[in-house]
Amino acid sequence: MSPPRVIQVAVPRPLHTVYDYGVPAELSMPAIGTRLRVPFGRSNTIGICTAIEVETPHKRLKNIQQILDSQPAIPAELMQLAHWMTQYYHHPLGEVLATMLPSAARKGAPFDIDAVDHWCVASTPFAGKRAPAQLACYEYLQANGPSSGSSLVEGGFSRQTLRNLHNKGAIERCEVLTSKQFETPPKANNEQVLAIETINKHHGKYACLLLEGVTGSGKTEVYLRSMAIPLAAQQQVLILVPEIALTPQTLRRFQCRFANVGMLHSNLSDHDRLQTWLKCKSGKISVLIGTRSAIFTPFKSLGLIIVDEEHDSSYKQQDGLRYSARDLSVIRARAHNVPVVLGSATPSLESLYNVQRKRYQRLHLHKRAGGAQMPTYNIIDMRGQTHTDGISLPLERVIKRHLEARGQVLLFLNRRGFAPTLLCAACGWQAHCTACDARLTLHRTPPQLSCHHCGLRLQVPKKCAHCDQTSLLPVGMGTQRTESVAQQLFNDVPIYRIDRDTTRSTKKLAEQFDKINQGKPCIMVGTQMLAKGHHFPDVTLVAILNADAGFLSPDFRAPERTAQLIVQVAGRSGRAVRPGEVWIQSFQPDNPALVSLIQTGYPGFAVAELEQRIKMGMPPAKPMALIRAESVNPQEAISLLNHAKQQFHSIEALGPVPAPLARMSNRSRFQLMLIAETRPQLHKALQQLQIPKIPNKLRWSIDVDPYDSM
Ligand code: ADP
Ligand code: ZN
Ligand code: ZN
Description:
Elements: E1 6-10, E2 19-22, E3 35-40, E4 43-52, E5 66-67, H1 76-89, H2 93-100, H3 103-106, E6 118-121, H4 132-144, E7 147-148, H5 149-154, H6 159-167, E8 171-173, H7 190-201, E9 207-213, H8 219-226, H9 228-232, E10 236-240, H10 248-255, E11 261-264, H11 270-282, E12 287-290, E13 302-308, H12 325-336, E14 339-344, H13 349-356, E15 361-365, E16 376-381, E17 387-388, E18 391-392, H14 393-404, E19 408-412, E20 421-424, E21 441-444, E22 447-450, E23 457-458, E24 472-475, H15 479-489, E25 495-498, H16 506-516, E26 523-526, E27 539-544, H17 548-552, H18 558-570, E28 581-586, H19 592-616, E29 624-631, H20 634-645, E30 652-664, E31 667-675, H21 679-688, E32 699-704
Parallel strand pairs: 9-14, 9-15, 10-12, 10-13, 11-12, 13-14, 16-28, 19-26, 19-27, 25-26, 27-28
Antiparallel strand pairs: 1-2, 1-4, 3-4, 3-5, 6-7, 6-8, 17-18, 20-24, 21-22, 22-23, 29-31, 29-32, 30-31
Helix pairs in contact: 1-2, 4-6, 7-8, 18-19
The structure holds adenosine-5'-diphosphate and zinc ion (ZN) (2 copies).
């Protein structure tokens, strides 16, 4: 009898262990990285083969049931990344591997690429005036270039219409999204040329380049041009963008330049997501634009990685496997020996620190492309100021002046709803969420009280729950309230509110943007959704209605985040011919962070802030991790963290303290903050951490390099 053939399998369970399985005689030996169906517990699961031909101490082994792939689902490079992540994020290998796979692949879907389902107009002209549906579809394809069958059906054309057009020879199938409408790019300016040449110089070797360019400086143009060399060498390019920035406009910009552009974002169906993933793996897609999880896409031959708005919070996954796609992009670039470009107008302090330590190379775009000027900043001291529901008299005058000069106005407020608090004027009672340690936000359209943390929704009470008086007052500002004030004060221009409540569909958002970009005077009221990457050429005034809230937060990253947000919002102003102004309302006009930002701009602010962090021994100068615990019973969470704390001797462990949001969905939340001198110290301490078996309802997690401590 030949010795048993034994392999190791990682299963998608929160267990820090891999399992030994036998390979039955009728199956061939699987390769590392292939998906396998294995018996697990009382049923079976899909795991990933992590080692073959291992020696096992176990006498009686279960056999694997099925090998799902002929080629590894997770190629060697990503397998290595997975192992790296288990060490760095202290997360079980099985779950890391599951996170890397698209969900259809996780569930065992076969790796078959769909038959070609993209259509474009053929050389035979179409003369079907009597068939309006066919004509409309034909004209659509003529105007928009190749489109997938599914997107055409989504757009209202039927499969029958496509078949009829195809039978008449008017349209034909074509490979993926090859684009035919190549646009002529603008001539790159000197700073852009220097940036592009530096990126090109690193073709074929690892380098991390921080492209720091003011808003509207033409960073995207630099990305587009630096992609030409890897693409000409038959290599692929990965572009990561923040969640909100992935709009049809972004995609179109890339599609107009390059063929075979694919996109990965959270609105895709599982099937389409897997298809795109497979096409990247096989090399059919040349350019992939995607949000955070696109960092796990396998490539046949990767040539360049670009991370746009690298400071953006959406690159950090905030639950489960808490990875940073930005940081992983650097790891992958090194593994592939290719350059990675991190672009931002407001680089993270992490990246600036890496520049300081000569790990990253910095590239600058100081000026706006096409000659537009940077906006000027002004502060309105709100103390003792008359105001109509949050819009001060001076600001009202400024808005009027801009509208009269036929400019567009953007009012920024980082809070949706009507008012963040409903207060009883008679007794001081406030409407609180029953499940969270938070106030309920009053909404007017539709009227309700809503908890922005757990999603609880209640009818708006008529009377105070405490003293029964009808003296309930909305206190504070939300976007709905600003919208209605703007309607009162400026009733002759359209007002567009843009926040998560008004723009649940990307289609509606695109419609609103189209109207705005017609260029007529209007007022936009919005949250940070408006801050990111959008190009509004006719905005001449940006007003930040309440700059204080962000600077006052206890989180150590709050000043950095607030400064980034202000600069990004301000960057929507004066992007084209007409110069822009930025007005900031503040009750604390002397706040040092705000003053430094206005006087020295983001670069000066960042230098001062980084110095502070280094002095305080906080990230990025020292590595940090949070251990979080939450439970219905607060004592359980506290004792788990205390148990953990006793095990840390060589590193600093602060806490346990209640999380800034101390109770959410009826669970009390606590955290222990770990700060080490060096990364190896931090990782060693976390590796040695032993947590005993814990009560069922107690949850805990490790967050390495936490983005926020909420
Ligand atoms: P960023 O990504 O830095 O915000 P964009 O790449 O979106 O900037 O460029 C802002 C605007 O300037 C766009 O309309 C773009 O087409 C234009 N632009 C970029 N580079 C140039 C250039 N060299 N000459 C003229 N216009 C340019
Ligand atoms: Zn009351
Ligand atoms: Zn709640």
